[in-house]
Design brief:
355 residues, eight-stranded mixed beta sheet, five-stranded antiparallel beta sheet
Length: 355
């Protein structure tokens, strides 16, 4: 591994009746016994997730935390070495985890492609019949596939200048502020996302040049950033591992919520998202929620799309937007929908004035 080259290592482990067992690793910098210790350190993630699958992190690497971060990929697969059925999932498959270890300086690259990494792992696993026969060369191949996925994602984002993203989003926010002035009414918007880049974009857009004079205060608690402007309040928070929504009891009377979450797995993932949404609307019953998928439509299975639509239909105040293209364009479209809603309110206000 050379310092100038973007590199990540991959280790595949399985959970049997005796504990976590290493199948194969492509890592040459971290000892195999340490890899098992690292996996055991994060075993609570496996226990908490039960039958969940997905990629979680970034997380620090015990003993190597100054230099490395990691992602934990949880999945199920056939492994003929495991004979004790009690160690298998309800589907009769081994419960497995992959440790993706990389230098901390590449965390931003990793975050950018977070939602695509698990799809790459799933596609690779389709070519593997039995995990017990997995070779080091195959794991190196998977590592390279993940690197290529990250590079492709990074290239697509660079095709559209980051400053241009911020400019477009900040224009939408400026329109919200101006409309609120004409309506003579403050608004509150909550923004919850599992995409770190989108999280940073929305904050940058609020503090962009055309909006900075409108900002009155900025505060940050353990979970939530709050930005107050002349005409509105913005509450911004990440979704955490296993799509967990942070404590939001301090947020009351939200007018709008922009909720972004990955939807590339199964029913349980969708239920978690809608549990979060119901938690928000329970204390903000008039809140309008716009639920945007943070992964592209092409990565969402058909049965998951059907569940999304069914859940949306059960909630009058939820609008589903499945991302076509990239999530940042979807974020702009979401803000545009809020702008349109305020325009309609302004039209009603004008009509009532003339009547």
């Amino acid at each position: 591994m050379t310092p100038s080259k973007f590199y990540l290592s991959m280790s595949i482990l399985v959970l049997d009746d005796l504990g976590i067992e290493l199948r194969v690793s492509s890592d040459t910098k971290i000892r195999q016994e340490d890899i098992v210790l690292i996996a055991n350190f994060y075993s609570p993630i496996i226990e908490a997730s039960k039958s969940e699958i997905g990629v979680f992190g970034p997380l620090p690497v015990p003993k190597y935390q100054e230099k490395y971060n990691l992602l934990v990929a949880l999945f199920e697969h056939n492994d003929s070495k495991i004979k004790n059925k009690r160690a298998l999932s309800k589907n009769g498959l081994a419960r497995c985890l992959g440790l993706i270890i990389y230098e901390k300086k590449y965390t931003e690259k990793i975050n950018l492609a977070h939602s695509s990494i698990f799809v790459t792992i799933q596609n690779f696993l389709k070519t593997v019949d039995d995990l017990s026969s997995l070779t080091e060369n195959q794991v190196i191949e998977l590592s390279n596939d993940i690197v290529n996925t990250i590079r492709e994602k990074e290239k697509n984002v660079k095709l559209k200048n980051i400053d241009e993203y911020i400019s477009e989003l900040s224009n939408r926010i400026n329109m919200l502020e101006m409309l609120a002035t004409t309506l003579q009414k403050r608004f509150k918007i909550g923004f919850f996302t599992d995409d770190d880049f989108a999280y940073k974009l929305i904050i940058s857009a609020i503090f962009a040049i055309q909006n900075i004079d409108l900002v009155l205060s900025y505060s940050i608690s353990e979970w939530i950033i709050q930005i107050q402007t002349c005409n509105g309040e913005y509450y911004i928070s990440r979704l955490y591992d296993l799509e967990t929504l942070a404590e939001i009891s301090e947020i009351k009377n939200l007018n709008y919520v922009i909720y972004q979450g990955k939807c590339n797995l199964d029913k349980s993932q969708i239920r978690r998202h809608f549990r979060n949404i119901d938690k928000i609307t329970k204390q903000n019953q008039d809140t309008q929620v716009i639920f945007t998928t943070s992964n592209e439509a092409s990565t969402i299975p058909i049965d998951v799309k059907k569940i999304l639509l069914e859940e949306e239909k059960q909630r009058e105040n939820v609008l589903l937007l499945v991302t076509i293209g990239d999530i940042y364009r979807s974020l702009e479209n979401t803000l545009f929908k809020i702008v349109n809603d305020l325009l309609e309110k302004r039209e009603i206000q004008i009509q009532e004035t003339y009547d």
